[in-house]
Amino acid sequence: MIYNDKPSYWGFLVSLVFPVRCFCCDGLISYGDYVCDDCRAEIEKCRNSRTKVVSFYGRRYNIHSPFVYMDAAESAVKLIKFTFNPDNAKPMGDEIAAKVSRLRERDFDLVTAVPFTKKDKLDREYNHAVLMAKRVSKRLLVPFDEKLLKKIRQTKRQHHLSGLERRTNLRGAFAAHKCVMGKHILLIDDVVTTGATLCECADMLYRAGARKVTCATFAAAKYSN
């Protein structure tokens, strides 16, 4: 588990003004840690040993996630997604990096993330998937490029839509840069439910000429559509 960072003097001074909080419950914790003792035990119960497989327009996608989307792992996703906790991307990105570092094919050329529109960024202040992807990039020593994918159309919020409605909602919402031609792209998001968002983005990367797209998230819902 990668739930702490190398302590630094300046980081310690900053923590005196801005206390360190658990990335799962937002409770106060000691400097140098990312998770409290209670959540450390709880999130281990969410550890994921399976790979989510999604079929999307004739192509199968294996989506790699260190946790099942439940309990402490679900709380972590909601905390970074709906409150201002950008530092939580560090332990979450570390876990994604640890998961994909064990894959057989990990000759990644670039790391990128599911993109936001300008309106999304204004509404949420930051793209948490981008922050996670940057952390993964740092851990794996693979370059990060936010410009590989662009969201070109505003879409409805997905959480109340069925699997088919999600695919319809997202079709044509993304575009990929031609610089992905011949490259193996590691695509990052926070959570996968039906897989519609990740697979739509991956499909655009393939259409732009990517050699391979590997999808990874912090958590994966138990079901597939």
Kindly, what is the distance between the CA atoms of the first and last residues, rounded to a whole number of angstroms? 30 Å
- Which geometry do the CA atoms define? globular
Strand content: 15-25%
Structural class: alpha/beta
Describe the secondary-structure layout.
Blueprint: H1 9-17, H2 37-44, E1 52-56, E2 59-64, E3 67-68, H3 71-82, H4 89-100, E4 110-113, H5 118-124, H6 128-140, E5 149-151, H7 163-170, E6 174-176, E7 184-192, H8 196-207, E8 212-220
Parallel strand pairs: 2-8, 3-8, 4-7, 7-8
Antiparallel strand pairs: 1-2, 5-6
Structural key phrases:
225 residues; alpha/beta; 6-stranded mixed beta sheet; two-stranded antiparallel ribbon; 18% strand
Describe the structure.
The protein has 225 residues and is α/β, with parallel strands linked by helices. The chain is 36% helix and 18% strand. It contains eight helices and eight strands. The protein has helices spanning 9-17, 37-44, 71-82, 89-100, 118-124, 128-140, 163-170, 196-207; strands at 52-56, 59-64, 67-68, 110-113, 149-151, 174-176, 184-192, 212-220. The strands form two sheets. Strands 1, 2, 3, 4, 7 and 8 form a six-stranded mixed sheet that branches. It has a two-stranded antiparallel ribbon with strand order 5-6. The model has no long low-confidence stretch (mean pLDDT 87).
